[in-house]
Structure of Xaa-Pro aminopeptidase:
Amino acid sequence: MPIYDSPNSLSNILHCRRQKLAKLIDFPVVIWAGNTTPRNFAANHFPFRASSHFLYFAGIPLKNAVIRLEEEKLELYIDNITSDVSLWCGETYQREEIADFIGADAAFPLTELETHLFGAATIAVQDPATWTQQSQLLGRWILPLSPPQGIDLELARAIVTLRLIHDDEAIRELVKAADISVKAHLAGMQTVKSASTEAEVRAAMESIIIANNMTTAYNSIVTVHGEVLHNNKYHNPLHSGDLLLADVGAETEMGWAGDITRTFPVSGKFSSTQKDIYDVVLAAHDACIAKIRPGVEYRDIHMLACLTLTEGLVSVGILQGDPANLVERNVHSVFFPHGIGHLLGLDVHDMEDLGDLAGYKEGRNRSDLFGLSYLRLNRSLQSNMLITIEPGFYQVPAILNPARSKYKYLINWEKLELFADVRSIRIEDEVLVTNVGSKVLSADLPTDTSTIEEIIIS
Amino acid sequence: MPIYDSPNSLSNILHCRRQKLAKLIDFPVVIWAGNTTPRNFAANHFPFRASSHFLYFAGIPLKNAVIRLEEEKLELYIDNITSDVSLWCGETYQREEIADFIGADAAFPLTELETHLFGAATIAVQDPATWTQQSQLLGRWILPLSPPQGIDLELARAIVTLRLIHDDEAIRELVKAADISVKAHLAGMQTVKSASTEAEVRAAMESIIIANNMTTAYNSIVTVHGEVLHNNKYHNPLHSGDLLLADVGAETEMGWAGDITRTFPVSGKFSSTQKDIYDVVLAAHDACIAKIRPGVEYRDIHMLACLTLTEGLVSVGILQGDPANLVERNVHSVFFPHGIGHLLGLDVHDMEDLGDLAGYKEGRNRSDLFGLSYLRLNRSLQSNMLITIEPGFYQVPAILNPARSKYKYLINWEKLELFADVRSIRIEDEVLVTNVGSKVLSADLPTDTSTIEEIIIS
């Protein structure tokens, strides 16, 4: 467990989080870490990932452990490993040592949990073996895909309140994740010219993450077909005229996520059409970041991105008309069909396991409008929130085809054909809201075309 | 789907596998691919891995698909993706195109499956959402951790019969996996001298796998503490006197696994004590491989490894007595507590999802003896079986401590102390049983200390 500089600091942080939680709720809380999930057979499992809520209050990824919080107290429930397991998996820390390390007030074997559950709220974990156990022990369904009810809902709201606003330790971890994500992207840029497939660039990027003893926070997107928005294949060959879109983020050992996207030319040189559109997207990116400060509505940032992108597309001649009017008609969504970003924390879409509880302020709901409906965050920004800003431009056949009649005159279809070498561009940075405005955690990674070209060629 | 050289070859292979299956059973078979498993929230899932039995009979990793085999016929059940999904995930192949590609005789949406299940046998998949569905649709419990019963057991036995003996296509895939695994190990050796942590060596190895658009077949072991047998941590710093144990294998896009282990010195130079023990392990490795041919009992290969290791440890002075007698007293298990290897195929421990059905010949059961009890394969070898040979030497505190009294005079404990810099050595190769003997699929990766030293230094 030589993870934090001193166990003392970890137990202080966790105590502080419990204090804040205790101010919001007056019932006990039990949080499960979850267990490994089998891949092709039981012993060949996916790498263990503790549930994010557990990581927030327990600090370290303990397999098959449970914590119970009541007022400011912390109890740990975990079984010591048997001697047979220790033969294969090595000596590990005993329950009391772990309890000491995280500052638990008491520690018990898992069998004791059953008698300490009265009146406790919980949050569903993702792995079915554990949520089945949660449901059985608590005597009610605890399902990861169903909205929480009663005290579980109260708990979820309280946790959202805490996790929305990152404390110093969270920010330290998030900075670490951002730093390694930046290094991964630099490695990607430095490899693209000599690589012959997407997979080779992905390897260069992920090897930085692995070498730093981190994992990817999500399945990387590294593709010359970024217009397939969730593209987790890496088999395409790289051609000289292609733009490569890389959406890759590192996750620290404690579970905190990075999330950065860059789009760069395989040849090392943007074509003039690619540069034109890139600069439109970059203008939206920069305009949004410039507006970020406490009190600003994230939805307004999204709408600013839509307007700035539209202005840019008008100026290059792809759109025709008054930008504000075009945005009103939702024309931008043809090329920018997703939201401007999301919360970032222990999850790459932070707390998305709770549906829109974290992303949407109470009383607000998703829009029905295409494009805006995919906005994942609709709240007023507060200091120490971490959000992404990720405008993009995509030529998605499934969107363009119906748009040909719908927006026959607002889009200059002939002009658009000149931009056939711009299938997809996204520029994504991580932005921490601060008291005075914002701080870009991924600022060490350049966004401008000339510096990116220099990195690739160098 | 541009995966196989020609769709025709894939459909022929699959037809051939169905023909063989139809000779063994006379009831219909339904095999589920399974679905993705969520990591920290539903949309952030682990990379999809289709069930191995599905991959064997469907050839390609189709998410949430089902196949039905009856006599030589193949039916595919899969839903076309909706336009909303295609927006995010791109255009994909339609049901009929996929059916055509794999040579299915008919294709249906998933809703049709329910009416085609009468009398069908199946195999449990790993992901709970899918095995719950299997159980509901078939009206009986289909659990991955419970032994199959009735026709499901008959099916499992028939599949074991097929999958034990690899066909040409399987061997082609296994050779691909072995080749990339070899390259990964070479990269590891070439990195170890300049690396400062285990994680950096792991990164060099896995980046080869990722760059070739493959995945790891299991969680890599890359550690200076190989005496922790299942070590999936990579945080240890590398010191000049350390031996690094790397157990890393690639898995092809179609799911076929590689599995190789090498142990090499961080400094590039084995110490004399390390070389002494390494050569003992290598002698066992070579002796076992030399004996492999059809008709040989794998258990005898295991016992040969025990004897050869014991002879070597007697000659270096760690064990005292007659080697055959020492093996009879199970002294070797103090330093070699696991089996000599296992089946390799679509799973790194092939068909371990079926318990010991594949590994152990009908009527044979696991031994109670420490060490031998971990032998995963106890069958007579046949041509086109692929097995691993992986003798090792480990100083596991949890085993050595009780052995101090049990084997007080048979182990020269003072002498053993001189070998403190040899915490763990394992040498593992993949061996294909052939008509005339065997072929080592990982033969391009050297095993001898001097060539390994040359690779590291070069």
Summary: The domain at 7-164 of chain A is CATH 3.40.350.10 (Creatine Amidinohydrolase; Chain A, domain 1). The first strand of chain A starts at residue 29 and ends at 32.
